[in-house]
Amino acid sequence: DAKTTQPPSMDCAEGRAANLPCNHSTISGNEYVYWYRQIHSQGPQYIIHGLKNNETNEMASLIITEDRKSSTLILPHATLRDTAVYYCIVRPAAQKLVFGQGTRLTINP
Amino acid sequence: DAGVTQSPTHLIKTRGQQVTLRCSPKSGHDTVSWYQQALGQGPQFIFQYYEEEERQRGNFPDRFSGHQFPNYSSELNVNALLLGDSALYLCASSLVAGVENIQYFGAGTRLSVL
Q1: Are A87 and B42 an interchain contact pair (Cβ–Cβ within 8 Å)?
Q2: What is the mean pLDDT of each run of 10 residues along chain B (114 residues)?
Q3: Which residue of B has its CA nearest to A48?
Q4: DSSP state letters, A66-94
Q5: pLDDT at A96 over 90
Q6: Hey, is the C-beta of A99 within 8 angstroms of any chain B C-beta?
Q7: Which residues of chain B lie closer than 8 angstroms to A34, CB-CB?
Q8: Is A105 in contact with A86 (CB distance < 8 Å)?
Q9: How far apart, in whole angstroms, are the C-alpha atoms of residue A60 and residue A47?
């Protein structure tokens, strides 16, 4: 079973920041937080990951709370192409990915 | 730099038949994982191959088997196909020595069983 809880759906206006929450209250010390997204039944696309510290790359930012029990993925300037299902996954490195239902993010013009 | 490639993209089979799906990992990767994604669901882990051996396996019957070749490419075989095997089959590759072991996915093979 997935170890994360995400809202089933969210909406965001184009050009605004999209903030996607994820609860992982049972996370263990050796488990990373990974975010993937899947656009229209294509293969999942890796976005970002982190262990303790906040992370940023060219796609997004990942904010992890100090107790590591929750995190937020931030897409700073959402575009229509960001419409997708976003998956938050926690696991030790080298283990299988366990996908939940994810959050269906819709970017509105 | 080619990413993960899968073939074929689409496949139609009938119940009871056997199917083989193929995956070439991202350049430099040595580990291949296979996932099944039914319509409307998240991907489910089938198994993972490293050094030509199955290292981890999900809750799938023995009808699902695999192979990894010396060049790290992989095949997924499904025997005695059932209607419920209709799904998107995804291959992901990674580097076992990579600290965070990020998996990168191919576009998938869509299998329809009639």
Answers
A1: yes
A2: 91 98 95 95 95 94 97 97 98 83 94 98
A3: B102
A4: TTSSEEEEEETT--GGG-EEEEEEEEETT
A5: no
A6: yes
A7: 102
A8: yes
A9: 7
